[in-house]
Design goal:
The relative contact order is 0.13. The longest helix has 14 residues, at 5-18. A hairpin with a 2-residue loop joins strand 21 and strand 22 (278-283). Helices cover 6% and strands 48% of the residues. It has helices at residues 5-18, 68-73; strands at residues 39-43, 53-58, 63-65, 81-87, 90-95, 100-104, 111-115, 122-128, 131-136, 147-152, 158-163, 168-174, 177-182, 191-196, 199-205, 210-216, 219-224, 237-242, 247-253, 262-267, 270-275, 278-283, 295-296, 303-309, 312-317, 325-332, 338-346, 348-352. It has 355 residues and is mainly beta. The chain contains two helices and 28 strands. InterPro entries: DUF5074 (IPR031815), Host-pathogen_enzymatic-act (IPR051200), Quino_amine_DH_bsu (IPR011044), WD40/YVTN_repeat-like_dom_sf (IPR015943). This is 40-residue YVTN family beta-propeller repeat-containing protein.
Length: 355
């Protein structure tokens, strides 16, 4: 599921009772036999409904293929997809409630293997050399059992489990280190763990509820949402961490307690993030946060996933009640103009590219 705490607590029961596994389902793939040079939209589906899926979009060819994993392999993908990544000659799909990682051919999406052990509430993944790193919450009510599982990418066997602070979520591999943002899981946290190999060598404190990490221009950038209104609302922030000393160099604090940045990414020397239904950007050399948005994304009913890629912004919108199919909106980054929109599966939470 998304790391948005309010959704996690309040919607699980709603989605479980309101959604049938077959409702609003999309047809099996009709289109390309292979999936290349396009957009992969990860659809979370509904909690405990086993209806996660991947939608493939090729705007140049005018092709949209829904539910491609099940269409190719003739079995459901799993329950509550939280991440998708491509590494070397494999695609990896994390299924949170299923406690599995599906491994597929990145072009045909044919199943290669399934990791179905040593995972407990898996969230996000990253790679370094021959190692796959997976953040795990463990039991949501236990603040001490969180860990990063490390698997061999060749045989998919467990190498080790690294105990970490509560609520490991986003994870980034950069320059020999693995950076883990601890949003807090079912609670709240404010830490970045730095892992080298299989050991945590440093823990850095940042703003409350870190929800995004990016490496750009010699610095690690961390967006923190701040506490939500039901937990004593605080404003979000963006931290700039020196990658040499691994210390916080500067903290950009938002002025309003109601401002909670999300969906941080970087592109061409700029940092991008979203606030509500607007996209903001600022240079990595800037001394303050922007006060005017780059462009609005008003078409989005509920922003659930976001990415920047090759001059375009991709915004994934969940349906207003989180039980129906969503949409993908594509914007020209330079002018903020809407240049395309496509149907997706239920609760699209990520947009990915196999570059």
């Amino acid at each position: 599921m998304h790391s948005k705490h309010l959704i996690y607590f309040c919607l699980c029961a709603l989605l479980f009772s309101a959604c049938d596994n077959n409702d609003d389902s999309l047809p099996d793939p009709e289109g390309p036999v292979t999936f290349e040079n396009g957009i992969f939209v990860l659809n979370e589906g509904n909690f405990q409904q086993g209806n996660s899926s991947v939608t493939y979009v090729d705007p140049a060819a005018g092709v949209v293929s829904h539910n491609i994993f099940e269409g190719v392999n003739k079995v459901p993908m799993g329950d509550t997809a939280t991440d998708l990544a491509f590494f070397e000659d494999h695609g990896f799909i994390v299924l949170n409630v299923s406690n599995t990682i599906e491994i597929v051919d990145p072009v045909t999406f044919e199943s290669i293997a399934t990791i179905d052990s040593d995972l407990h509430n898996p969230r996000k993944i990253a790679f370094s050399e021959r190692m796959l790193y997976v953040t795990n919450w463990g039991e949501g009510s236990d603040t001490t059992d969180d860990y990063v599982a490390v698997f061999d990418t060749q045989n998919f066997e467990l190498l080790t489990k690294i105990p970490v602070a509560e609520g490991p979520e986003d994870i980034l591999s950069f320059n020999g280190n693995i950076f883990v943002a601890h949003g807090g899981g079912w609670n709240f946290n404010n830490k970045i763990s730095v892992i080298t190999g299989t050991e945590v060598n440093k823990v850095i404190e940042v703003g409350e509820v870190p929800n995004g990490i990016a490496a750009a221009d010699g610095s690690l950038w961390v967006s923190s949402a701040g506490l939500p209104d039901y937990a004593g609302e605080t404003a979000g922030s963006i931290s700039k961490i020196d990658l040499g000393s691994l210390t916080v160099e500067k903290t950009f604090s938002f002025p309003d307690a109601g401002q909670h940045p999300a969906n941080m990414s970087h592109y061409n020397g700029d940092i991008y993030f979203t606030l509500r239904d607007e996209v903001f950007s600022f240079s990595t050399s800037a001394s303050e946060l922007p006060t005017i948005s780059a462009f609005p994304i008003e078409e989005v009913a509920y922003l659930y996933g976001f990415n920047i890629h090759e001059g375009k912004a991709y915004a994934a919108s969940a349906s207003p009640d989180f039980t129906g199919n969503g949409k993908l909106f594509i914007y020209d980054l330079a002018g903020g103009n809407l240049v395309g929109q496509y149907d997706t599966g239920i609760n699209p939470n990520g947009i990915f590219f196999n570059d």
